[in-house]
Amino acid sequence: AKGAGKSQWRRYESDLHSAMVQRLELRTALDHAVNEGHFLLHYQPIVDLHTDEAVAFEALVRWHHPQRGTIPPDQFIEVAEESGLIVQIGRWVLEQALHTVSQWQRILPPGRLHYISVNVSVRQFRTPGFIDEVRGLLDTYGVDPRMLMLEITETLLMRDDEQTWQDLQKLRDLGVRIAIDDFGTGYSSLGYLRQRPIDVLKIDKTFIDDMVDSPQQHALVQSIVGLARTLNLKVVAEGIESPEHRDTLMRMGCPLGQGYLFSRPVSAAEAFAWLNSHARL
Ligand code: C2E
Ligand code: CA
Ligand code: CA
Ligand code: CA
Q1: Mean pLDDT of all residues in 54-77
Q2: Atom 45 of ligand 1, nearest CA residue
Q3: How much distance in Å is there from the Cα of 118 to the middle of ligand 2?
Q4: Angular region, 48: left φ>0, alpha ψ -120 to 50, beta rest
Q5: Element (H, E) at 166
Q6: Which ligand 1 atom is at minimum distance from the Cα of 241?
Q7: How many helices (H) and strands (E) does the chain have?
C-alpha cells in the first residue's frame, strides 16, 4: 500500500508538473498570438423574442491558431487574465467590434442595429486609461456611444468601491450602456443595483438550462425578470436552446435573448447578412 501511495504521489507530481508546463506553453503561445494578431471575433445575435428579429450582437473572441485552428475563449481567457494579456486582447476586441459596427452603420437603415455588446474583463476595466480608450475609439470610428454595450461581471462590483461606480458612471455619461453578465452567478448583494449606473441584466445560461423541468429554477428566473422590471433594467436571457425556453421566457416577460435556438456566434460577414437581408432569423 505504501508503494502504491508513493507511485500515486509521483503521478500526481508529474501531472502537476505537466499542467504547469502546459500553462506556461499556453502563456507563451498566447503572448505570440497577441503580437501576431491571431484573433478573430464572432458575433451572436441578441433577438427580440416576440418578433424573432436580431436587434443586437454580442462580440465573442476566438483565437485563430495557425496549426490548431479556432480555439474558443474558455480555453485561454483564464490564462489571459492571469498574465495580463487580456488587456491587449480586450483592447483589440473593442477596436475590432467598433470598426465592424462603423462599417455596418454606413449601409444599414438607422435603428436597424440597436447595439453591439462587448465583454470587458475586470483587469481590463481597472487598467488606467480604460475610459479614455473607450472614448477615443468611439471617436475614431465615429460610432454613437449609445451603440456600445459593455458587459461586465459581478466580480467587478464585489468590492463595492466608489471608484468602480464612478468609472461606470463616467462611461454612462458618455452614453455607453452597461450590462451585468452572467447575472446571479456571483455573490454580490442585490442592494447594489439600486440607483446604480447599470442598464441590463443578462441571465446566465445555467439558470435557463433547467428552467423548464425544475420549478425552483423556473421561480429563480422569474424573480430575476421581476427584479429587472422593478429596478427599471432591461433583461437578456442567454443560452436559449429550445422553443420551450423561448416561450417560457416570453410568458415571464423577458423581451430579449440569445442562444443556439436562434444562432450560434457567426462571422462578421454572416452577421451582417442577417442584418441586411432577412430581418428575421
Ligand atoms: P459569455 O460572455 O457568457 O458568452 C456567452 C457564451 O455562451 C458564448 O461562448 C456563446 O457562444 C455561448 N452560448 C450562447 N448561446 C448558447 C446556447 O444556446 N447554448 C450553449 N451551450 N452556449 C451558448 P463563447 O463564445 O465560447 O465564450 C465563452 C466566454 O468567454 C464568454 O461567456 C465570456 O465570458 C468569455 N469571452 C468571450 N469573448 C470575450 C472577450 O472578448 N473578452 C472577455 N473578457 N471575455 C470574453
Ligand atoms: Ca457576455
Ligand atoms: Ca454571459
Ligand atoms: Ca455565461
Answers
A1: 96
A2: 119
A3: 7
A4: beta
A5: helix 162-174
A6: 18
A7: 11, 9
Q: Whose CA is nearest to atom 21 of ligand 1?
A: 239
What's the residue count for the chain? 281
- Cα gap 39→33, rounded to integer Å: 7
Torsion from C-alpha of 179, 185, 188, 191, nearest 10 degrees: 60
Between the CA of 61 and the centroid of ligand 2 the distance, in Å, is 10
- Cell numbers describing residue 107: 449601409
- What's the distance, Cα to Cα, between the start and end of the chain in Å? 62
Contact 199, 221 (CB under 8 A): no
Dist. CA 247–CA 111, nearest whole Å: 26
Indicate the pLDDT class of residue 149, thresholds 50, 70 and 90: very high
**Which atom, in ligand 1's list, is nearest to the CA of 260?**
18
List all residues whose CB is within 6 A of at least one atom of ligand 1.
Answer: 44, 60-61, 72-74, 77, 86, 90, 93, 119, 121, 181-182, 205, 238-241, 258-260, 265
The whole-angstrom separation of Cα 119 and Cα 172 is: 16
Q: Are 281 and 274 in contact (CB under 8 A)?
A: yes
**Residues 5-41: b if buried by 16+ CB within 10 A, e if exposed:** eeeeeeeeeeeeeeeeeeeeebbebbeebbeeebbeb
Mean pLDDT computed over 182-203 = 84
Q: What is the spatial distance between Cα 158 and Cα 133, in angstroms, rounded to a whole number? A: 24
Mean pLDDT (whole number) for 212-228: 93
pLDDT band at 93 (very low <50, low <70, confident <90, very high): very high
